[in-house]
Design goal:
By secondary structure, this protein is mainly beta. The protein is built from no helices and 15 strands.
């Protein structure tokens, strides 16, 4: 059983192997690594970490974040997995990072972080009450550029 400590929370790591899987998290803190595609991922209450379409590398201090950050790699080029996952992070202060592929992500209520730094594909993001941040390169249609939203970003 692998455990990781991130921002003071100890997680037990679960890996969703294969494609076309459904993962139902706990009402506590979940750490899920899901390299496959066509998965339905739902975590409940708690501070969750979800890495979809990525390979975990390490956790270490990162000055721009003012503390610990999760480092990851994209999946190897020979990998046939391509995102296309639906992610419902539930309530809590969640961290969701995605790789290549198409994603529908609901961050839920809480102070959330969405990391699409190496994402490719179409990504739909929604967030509930709280302060949520999106990091990466995103295109926002002109028609939505002036809308108010609880989703902040470094675009």
């Amino acid at each position: 059983m692998t455990t990781r400590v991130y921002r003071g929370v100890t997680y037990t790591v679960e890996t969703l192997t294969g494609n076309d899987q459904t993962f139902q998290g706990t009402q506590g803190n979940d750490w899920l690594e899901a390299p496959g595609s066509n998965n339905l991922i739902s975590t409940g209450k708690g501070n969750d970490v979800i890495l979809a379409g990525l390979e975990f590398v390490e956790i270490k201090n990162y000055t721009p974040y003012g503390g610990p950050a999760i480092f990851y790699n994209s999946l190897p080029p020979a990998s046939t997995t391509v995102g296309n996952n639906i992610i419902d992070a539930g309530s809590g202060d969640d961290y969701v990072a995605v790789g290549k592929g198409n994603y529908i992500v609901d961050l839920g209520k809480g102070n959330n972080i969405f990391d699409g730094g190496i994402a490719t594909g179409n990504i739909q993001i929604s967030a509930g009450n709280g302060r949520s941040e999106a990091h990466g390169f995103f295109w926002v249609p002109d028609s939505l550029a002036h809308e108010s939203s609880p989703l902040l970003g470094t675009f």
